[in-house]
Amino acid sequence: GGPNAGGLAEPGAKGYNPAEVKANGGGVPVSNYSLQPQFMGREGSKDVFFDPAELGKLQGTGDLEARVGGGSGYEAPGGVNAYYAKPMPDVEVKGEPVEALAFLEELQARERLVKDKDGKVATVLGIGPCIGEDAPGDIQHVVLSSPPGFEYVEGQSLSVTPGGKDKKGKPHKPRLYSIASTRYGDLCDGKTVSLCVRRAEFSDPATGEADPAKAGVCSGQLCDAKVGDTFKVAGPVGKTMLLPADPSADVIMVGTGTGVAPFRGFCHRLFMEPTPAAHTFAGTAWLFLGVPVSAGLLYPEEFEAMKRRGGGQLRVTTAISREQQNAGGGRKYVQDCLREEGVEVFNRVNAGGSIYFCGLKGMMPGILEAMESVAKEQGLSWEETLNGWKKNKQWHVEVY
Known about the structure:
Strand content: 15-25%
Largest sheet: 6 strands, antiparallel
Keywords: FAD, Flavoprotein, Membrane, NADP, Oxidoreductase, Transmembrane, Transmembrane helix
Helix content: 10-25%
Family: Belongs to the ferredoxin--NADP reductase type 1 family.
Radius of gyration: 21 Å
Shape: globular
Strand order of the largest sheet: 6-5-8-3-4-7
Catalytic activity: 2 reduced [2Fe-2S]-[ferredoxin] + NADP(+) + H(+) = 2 oxidized [2Fe-2S]-[ferredoxin] + NADPH
InterPro entries: FAD-bd_FR_type (IPR017927), Flavoprot_Pyr_Nucl_cyt_Rdtase (IPR001709), FNR (IPR015701), FNR_nucleotide-bd (IPR039261), OxRdtase_FAD/NAD-bd (IPR001433), Riboflavin_synthase-like_b-brl (IPR017938)
Structural class: alpha/beta
Oligomer: single chain
Number of strands: 13
Transmembrane segments: 277-299
Order of helices and strands: HHHEEEEEEEHEEHHEHEHHEHHE
């Protein structure tokens, strides 16, 4: 339904509304999480699961078929509490206690619980395009089962080893992908992990045609995956992109393209899931996202839902390079947005907030130049400011 269907929370309401969470990327797969045409456009289908009886039981409730078939209109018998087998603390929401999603709240950021050499099998549970048909390239959202022994927190990465052999006849080396879901996963049961994958393609400069000989092996396999396919995974990896421990600290996120992946996880945790973390978050989350065209905006419906729930706590600033102009009349990129909003960004980080960057490494020179110009306009030493942010662990960069 529309934004007000199913009794969704009013803007600013922090109350947990399971229908809204499920309709916007959490709790149940959205309609396009299947490559099978007969299921496209449906709110939910149990067929996005490889084996519903084994993989889809929600903390032992066994109500997958009714839940997924009912889409965002489904309500579990017994209410929200029926989703979870373990007792969990209540969270006060406008004076009314709500069962909190809390069975993974104690997870710490640990690395390589599963080593590459011991990679475990993850099954594709769902897959669907992240961008519109008019956008260049191919970006897929891939939902994988989380294998035994693999646990992660927001901001970490997953290692995926593609199948087959390289040109020398040796097994392929693993590739790292930023995780795009929260520790609870897109089904809120702690048993899945999601990736946002761009198909790596290289075009001939002379003809503009894609050169299949130089296509990305792992990204191609992931983007072409069907429900039920398996991949060897390991990890998690990374402690660079973790959310601040202080729930009052601002979170400023700067990403280009699939660099939005960890920020999707951040925002689902802070605004969509009924966790103590979401309840206690008192800062502002501000996303700067750069894409080439409007159809290339990733997860737009989800971010709109999160903005409604955030009631001003979530801001989204976009730079659509082929459709917007910067102050000089050229194409607008994320660094131009940072330059325009620079004073407020600096004030928020200097007040204790953290700033994160994720995307292609080529975005960083322009960003650093923009930040330096903002510092100079305020009479600040950029070198001293940056060193201070790094020392205080407020500056987080993960580029590839």
